[in-house]
Amino acid sequence: MLFKVTEDVLDPRELEKELDKPENGAVVTFQGVVRDNSRGRTVSYLEYDAYAPMATKVMAQIAEEIRAKWPVTDIGIWHRTGRLEIGEASLLVVVTSGHRKEAFEACHHCVDRIKEIVPVWKKEVWDNGESWVEGDVMVADRDACAEETPAKPKRKRLTKEEKMKVDHEAFLRSAISSAFLT
Amino acid sequence: MRVHTRFFASARDAVGTRELDLEVPADTTAGALLDRLISDYPKLAGHAKTLRMAVNEAYTDLSHPLNEGDEVALIPPVSGG
User: I need a surface site. Which of A7, A114, A155, B8 has the fewest CB within 10 A?
Assistant: First the structure.
């Protein structure tokens, strides 16, 4: 299976084997690994959640996007969910091609896009607490900040609907348009 | 009509459940459903500006009209990898 969300331990050799073809001259494998620190905190372990059926569809869309830009043979993307200990692989991306340049570039781009649009979330668990990470934001820090800082009146307030529309459209431009319209 | 809603990460914590079946008026859009959820679950309000919507496993616009049996997901900013 080229695109997969699983609770099982990820084995890079297994995914590389799935992509094995005689015309390949390059196999680039990326492993995202659980790090023991994040923004000054010591991480005990991570918990990943995913919207699995959609995540595999978005992985396939990213692969199509890559094929439109680089002459690669195959792209495989596996993401693990559940509890992951320090040093365990959370993400595998394998890109194969005739020559190394396109495989390196496509793999780099692939990991960036996964982090932008594949519906997977990590929760950091520390000695003294835990928080979902959403985009670049630690949710626990954001909530604490919202409680401490009284809302200030803004010069021009958008209505809730306007604000949501603006944010949503900006997101769709980056997530959807670049994938399908360019 | 009936739609199935799914929640992830902080949105799931705010609602307190992973999934809900909801009865909504026939002409409901994804955005109108989000408004309804925010009013039913005020804790979602703090997340509203960063939440995205997906209908039947694809990102969609808030103006997207819903149909009977649609699966609608609230998608906070993702953090995989």
Answer: A155
Coil, helix or strand at residue B80: coil
pLDDT at residue A167 tops 80: no
Number of structural domains, chain B? 1
- The reported pTM is 0.85
A89: helix, strand or coil: strand
Task: Summarize chain B as % helix, strand, coil (round to 5).
Answer: 35, 30, 35
Q: Is A146 on the interface with B (CB under 8 A)?
A: yes
B20 part of a folded domain = yes
Q: Would you state the pLDDT for residue A18?
A: 98
| CA–CA dist B47, B57 (Å, integer) | 20
- Superfamily for the A3-155 domain: Molybdopterin biosynthesis MoaE subunit (3.90.1170.40)
pLDDT of A123 > 50? The answer is yes
Taking contacts as CB-CB distances below 8 angstroms, the residues of chain A near B80 are 48, 50, 55, 79, 90-91, 114-115, 118-122
Q: Distance between CA A169 and CA A54 in Å, rounded?
A: 20
pLDDT band at A136 (very low <50, low <70, confident <90, very high): confident
In this prediction, residues A80-101 reach a mean pLDDT of 98
User: Which among A15, A16, A13 is positioned nearest to A4, based on CA atoms?
Assistant: A15
In terms of residues, how long is chain B? 81
Query: Is residue B10 domain-resident?
Result: yes
pLDDT of A55: 98
Whether residue B80 lies inside any domain: the answer is: no
Residue ranges of the domains in chain A?
A: 3-155
